[in-house]
Amino acid sequence: MATTISIPIEIFEILERKLGREDAKEVIKVIEKSLETIDAKAEEAKTEVKRLSEDLALQKKLELKDELTKELATKSDILLVRQEMQTIKVELEGKIESLNTKLNFLIFLMIIALTLMNPVMADIIKSFLK
């Protein structure tokens, strides 16, 4: 991005008085060329800084993504936990059913024991069973 840099006329006039017209023109050309070189280098530095900042931003984004990926559960992790929960649920339902069966058997034994010990209880139980 080359821009023409011109020296203010007042500076040229001062140089012209001190050095003469031709020498003043040469000094001005050298100064303008130097300023253009400085401007070009400033543009290069600006472009380099922009590139470096974009690279740094991309690097930070990737680091954050990696960190979040490590910390957050993925869909497959959630699916695995759901499957484990379903397996545990089935096991617990089986154990509950087994306990219900045992409890019903113990109730049945208690009824038999009460019936054998007390004939009045046998009549009460018969009335419930009707």
What does this protein structure show overall?
- With 130 residues, this protein is mainly α.
- The protein has two domains: 1-72; 73-130.
- The protein has four helices and no strands.
- It has helices at 9-19, 21-71, 75-117, 119-129.
- The mean pLDDT is 87.
Q: In a few lines, what is going on in this structure?
A:
Helices cover 89% and strands 0% of the residues. With 130 residues, the chain is mostly helical.
Strand fraction equals under 5%
Structural class: mainly alpha
Helix fraction bin:
over 70%
Indicate the overall shape: rod-shaped
Listing every helix as H and every strand as E from the N terminus to the C terminus, the arrangement reads HHHH
Number of domains: 2
Major sheet summary line: none
The end-to-end span amounts to 105 Å
Poorly predicted segments: none
Q: Please tally the β strands and state the result.
A: 0
Tally of separate helices: 4
Average pLDDT rating:
87
State Rg: 48 Å
Task: Compile the SSE list and pairings.
Elements: H1 9-19, H2 21-71, H3 75-117, H4 119-129
Task: Name a few traits of the molecule.
0% strand, mainly alpha, 2 domains, 4 helices, 130 residues, rod-shaped
